[in-house]
Amino acid sequence: MAILADAPGTPGRRLEAGAANLRLISDAQLRFQLRSLAEQLPSPAAVAIGLAGASTESDRARIRAAAAKVWPGTPCLATNDLETALAAAATSSAKPPRVRVLVLSGTGSCCYGRAADGRTAKAGGWGHLLGDRGSAYEIALNALKRVLCAFDRSGAWPQLGQRLLRVLLLNEPDQLTVWIQSASKTDIADLAVEVFAAWKNHDKMAAEILAEAAERLAADAVACARRLARKAEAVQFVFAGGTLLKQPHFAQWTGRAVRRLWPRARIVSLRREGAWGAVALAKQMLESPDLQRSSPASLSPTEQRNPRSMKLDRMPLDKAIRLMLSEEAKVPPAILAERRKIERALRLIVRAFKRGGRLFYVGAGTSGRLGVLDASECPPTFGTPPDQVQGIIAGGQRALWQAIEGAEDDGEAGAEAIRFRAVGARDVVVGIAASGRTPFVWGALRQAKRSGAATVLLCFNPTMAIARANRPTVVIAPAIGPEVLTGSTRLKAGTATKIILNLFTTLAMVRLGKVTGNLMVDVHPSNTKLRLRAVRMVQTLTGVKAEAAEQALVRSGWIVKKACQRLRR
User: Fold this and answer.
1) Active site residue: 377, 405, 412, 416, which one?
2) How far is Cα 22 from Cα 54, in angstroms, rounded to an integer?
3) C-alpha distance across the termini of the chain, in Å
4) 9, 18, 76, 532: which is deepest, by most CB within 10 A?
5) Computed from CA positions of residues 30, 35, 36, 42, in that sequence, does the dihedral angle turn out positive or negative?
C-alpha cells in the first residue's frame, strides 16, 4: 500500500497498490507496485508508504530505497499498515485519547497500540502458523478441526461440516486432508464466511467457534492496553479488518469481551481506509522541522581517508603488503593506551560471572560477527555454559554471512534484543561499534542501562562526544586511525576488536579458575586433537605417563580437573 501527499497545505491524495506483505515480495516487485502509482502522481511533495510486515528498520530501509528509485529526492516516510490504520483513526477523532489500540481482524489478525508519548505495544501478528488469533483464518481452521473431531468421536458428520464440504465441492471428510495440503492461507480463511452463515442458521458449533475467536481477539487487544495505559484510564479500541467490519455481530461479541476486560473501553470502527492515515503521516512529515537536515557530524576516524594509502590501487604488491602490515602494527600500542579502561571492563565482567551473570556482545556487521565468534568459542575452550557469553548481531542469524540492509540503523531492534534476552543487573553488555555511532548498538546499550546492567562501549572514535545520560559505564576507544581501505572496519578495527574481546574472555576465565598456569584445564575435548591435548595437560600437571593420564580421563568423563584429582589421591 502506498499513499502520497501532493503538496504542503493541500488535502493530499490517496493512492493504493496491492496490499502485499513486504516479507513476501522482492525489491523488484515493490518497485513495480510503486511505479504503477507514480504514473498517477509523478511528482509528489512527500510519500508515505505503509506495508504489512514492515516491522524493522531494515524493512523500512527497503521501502525507502525502492521509493528513492521511483521518486528521487522526494521525502519518504516508511512504516507498516498498523501505523497507517491508527493514523487514519486519528484523523476522524476530534479529541484523540492518550492511548489508542487498533484491533485488526481480517484474513490474519493483530492488535497494535500507541500512546501519546510514542510508546507502542503489539499482540499477535505472528502469521497464520504461529498466531492470527481471532482472524478469519483461525475461525475457519478451528471449524475444520472441530467438525473432524466431532466426527471422530460420534461417527456423525456435523451440519457445519456439510457446509464446508459443499462449498469446497468435496464428497467426504477424507478429501479434506488432501485439499488442505495445497490450500493457501486465503483459501482456508475464505471458509470463515460459512461459519458465520452457519451461526446465523443457529448452528451451536459455529457459535462456540466464533465466541472463542472473539474472546481471544479481545484478550490480545486488552493486553496492548495494559502495557500502555493505567487500569482505570479510558482507551479507544479501533476495530478494523474485514472480519470485524463486515460481520457486525462478531464485532459486537468482541466489543463486549473488550469492555468486560477493560470497563472504560471506547469502541469505534475504522471508517476510512488505512491509506488515509498515510496521507496524514506524509503531511506531518512535510510540516516537520526534521526535514531540514542539520549538517552531518564530523567523520569518525574509521570513515576518514588514510593519507598513506591514497595510491593503494597503483602500489606494487610488496609495498602494499608493507603498508597494510605497518598499519596493523599500530593496533597493539593503541590498545595498550586503553589498558586501564580494559581492566575496568574486565573487573565488571569477572564480577558478573561470579554473581551468576552473563556477558553480551552487541554489534552490527564485522563487529557483530566478531562478538558472536568470541562467544561461540567460550564453551569448547573453557567449558562454560552456552548462555554465559552471548553474541547479538543486528539482523539476526542471516547477518552472519550476508549483509542485512538497514539492520544497524534500527535502535529499537537493539533495545528489543536486550529485552528479550532478559538482561538484568547481574549482566554486562558490551556494545561494539567501530564508528561509535551505530544505532542498533546504542539502542541495546540504553536498554541495558535501564535494566541495571553494566555497559561497555568499544569503539575507535576517541574524540566522539557522549551525553552524560547515555554514557556507558566504561568507554574503550583506541586511537587506531583511518583504515588503509577507507571505511573498511574489518581491517584495523576488526583486528583491534578481536584482540580486546580475546582479553575480555580469556582473562575473565583465568580469574574464574578455568586456567592452570597457561593450560585450559576446563577445555571440552570433543575431538581427537583436543583429547590428545587433554592427555598432555594431565601428564604435565601430575607427572604420569600418557596411558595413565588417558585412563584417568576416561574414568572422569574427559574432565581434566577431575582426572588430575583422581591421580593425586
Assistant:
1) 377
2) 6
3) 75
4) 76
5) positive
Query: Cell numbers 551505530 correspond to what residue?
Result: 438
Q: Which three cell numbers stand for residue 350?
A: 569477572
pLDDT at 527 over 50: yes
Alpha-carbon distance of 229 to 149, in angstroms, equals: 41
What CATH topology corresponds to 319-511?
Rossmann fold (3.40.50)
Measure the CA–CA gap between 45 and 7, rounded to whole angstroms: 5
Residues 6+ apart with CB under 8 A from 356: 426
Dist. CA 459–CA 499, nearest whole Å: 13
Please give the single-letter amino acid code of residue 540. T
Q: Are strands 474-476 and 454-458 parallel, antiparallel or unpaired?
A: parallel
Closest CA to 218 of 311, 285, 145, 134: 134
Give the class (CATH, top level) of 93-270: alpha beta
Burial 279-300 (b: 16+ CB within 10 A, else e): bbbbbebbeeeeeeeeeeeeeb
Backbone φ/ψ region at 273: left (φ over 0), alpha (ψ -120 to 50), beta: beta
Given the residues 138, 338, 408, 483, the one annotated as active site = 408
Largest separation between any pair of C-alpha atoms in the chain? 89
Residue 161: Cβ within 10 Å count: 21
- Write b or e for each residue in 37-64: b if 16 or more Cβ atoms lie within 10 A of its Cβ, otherwise e: bbeeeeebbbbbbbbbbbbbbbbbbbbb
Sign of the torsion formed by the C-alpha atoms of 259, 123, 101 and 231: positive
CB atoms within 10 A of CB 313: 7
Taking the CA atoms of the chain, what radius of gyration do you get in angstroms?
Answer: 30
Of 380, 451, 459, whose CA–CA distance to 421 is shortest? 451
Angle subtended by helix axes 248-261 and 204-228, to nearest 10: 50
Only one residue has cell 486519528, namely 90
Please calculate the CA angle 121-123-129 and round it to the nearest 5 degrees: 145
Segment 433-448, tens digit of pLDDT: 999 999 999 999 999 9
| pLDDT tens by residue, 108-120 | 999 999 888 888 8
What tens digit of pLDDT does each residue of 463-476 get? 888 888 889 999 99
Q: How many angstroms separate the CA atoms of 154 and 151, rounded?
A: 5
Contacts of 253 (CB under 8 A, 6+ apart): 210, 211, 214
What are the φ/ψ torsions at residue 161 (nearest 5 degrees)?
A: -60, -35
The pTM of the full predicted model, rounded to 2 decimals, is 0.68
CA distances from 290 to 37, 285, 286 (A): 26, 8, 9
Question: What pLDDT sits at residue 368?
Answer: 95
Q: Are 423 and 444 in contact (CB under 8 A)?
A: no
- The yes-or-no answer on residue 273 being catalytic is no
DSSP string, 264-280: TEEEEE--S-HHHHHHH
CA 214 to chain CA mean position, Å: 29
377 catalytic per annotation: yes
